[in-house]
Design brief:
The complex is a heterodimer of chains A (186) and B (164). With 186 residues, chain A is an alpha/beta fold. Chain A is built from 7 helices and 7 strands. The chains are: A alpha/beta (186), B mainly alpha (164).
Chain lengths: 186, 164
């Protein structure tokens, strides 16, 4: 009889734990379907040279593949941090997603070019094969060319240190000073 | 054709319920307006079914038929291309799931992650029935209907004592 009295309290406690957990979950975060799979095959022009490139040209690994476009405001916010990573020796491949090539080249001239190569995906078909649903998105491809991580949204120092350390430990462990600029607000 | 239909609907509604009818019709006009040419009416039917079955990855809680997001438009274009290319419904869904995960389906397959989603209604109804059963059983047990021999004797005595 005494136990029965505490059933509502128990229910309340259980519900509180569940709801409190819910507060810290991001409902827009989607699990990436491509994790653990090789980077999809593609045949696209390179942004600066215009040459046809394929998955074999993404040869510096592990590397980041950054999905960006000039119409994407968050990409502009993220851009300085990508320059910083590139200067720290992180190979970054760009995926210029559903963009105007002329505008994209002007952007890189004006803001600096952190990309080792830039894949031009005007119609968004490579983006679709990757499961991209918005820019910016940043993927990690490991030594074997497999997709091992995806980050949706702005990549900044905080995110990089928290989630990308496994593949870029030399950068994260502070051999190259990155922290002073701090994280860019979302 | 549409005009005539609209008129007949209007006649069918009484004057008072006209607003209500208008509201009902408005719901049907919710989807994004786009034109696709289909080589056969069967493909069009399948297009409508699939575009409502697929969920937009960007604007969650909308299907790709209703969403204005660029990604939803891209997925509709791919859907039309694949239908015209003779892909089966299963092949198209598999194509989408390979890229966007089970999330893109409003009716995901039952696996480890979605098992709870599928079975929760059954479990909850079961728990409710169990709780109700438990409740009523307790009530029945709490009110015994038969008296023991001594209680019957006591009762008889009481009635006799208090009789006028």
């Amino acid at each position: 009889m005494q136990v029965r009295r505490f059933i509502p309290l128990l229910g309340f406690g259980l519900l509180s734990v569940l709801l409190f957990r819910g507060l810290s979950l991001d409902p827009t975060a989607l699990p990436a379907a491509r994790l653990g799979q090789p980077f999809p095959e593609f045949a696209k022009p390179e942004l600066q040279s215009g040459e046809a490139i394929g998955v074999a040209d993404l040869s510096q690994r592990p590397a980041l593949v950054n999905v960006w476009a000039t119409w994407c405001y968050s990409c502009r916010v993220e851009h300085p941090y990508l320059l910083e990573l590139a200067s720290a020796g992180v190979p970054i491949y760009g995926l210029n997603y559903k963009d105007d090539a002329v505008k994209a080249r002007a952007w890189l001239t004006q803001l600096g070019d952190p990309y080792a190569l830039n894949i031009v995906d005007v119609e968004g078909s490579l983006g679709l094969d990757l499961g991209v649903y918005g820019a910016p998105e940043t993927y990690v491809i490991d030594r074997d060319g497999k997709i091992v991580h995806r980050h949706v949204g702005i990549l900044d120092s905080r995110v990089f240190h928290a989630d990308f350390g496994a593949w870029f430990s030399s950068v994260v462990e502070g051999t190259v000073p990155l922290a002073q600029r701090g994280s860019v607000a979302k | 054709m549409t005009e005539r239909r609209a008129v007949s609907v209007r006649k069918g509604c009484g004057r008072l319920s006209l607003t209500f009818c208008g509201w009902m019709l408005a719901a049907a006009a919710h989807a994004v307006i786009e034109t696709y040419e289909f080589s056969s009416p069967a493909l069009e039917v399948r297009y409508h079914a699939l575009s409502q079955e697929l969920r937009c990855p960007k604007c969650q809680n909308q299907n790709i038929a209703d969403s204005n997001a660029p990604i939803a438009r891209d997925l509709r274009v791919v859907l039309v291309e694949q239908l015209e290319a003779g892909q089966s419904d299963e092949q198209i869904l598999a194509f989408m799931v390979a890229r966007y995960g089970e999330f893109v389906r409003y009716r995901p397959t039952v696996d480890r992650n979605t098992a709870l989603l599928w079975w929760a209604p059954v479990i909850l109804i079961g728990a409710g029935v169990f709780a109700l059963g438990f409740h009523f059983m307790g009530r029945v047990r709490a009110s015994p209907s038969t008296l023991t021999a001594t209680e019957a004797a006591q009762l008889k005595k009481l009635i006799e004592e208090n009789a006028p």
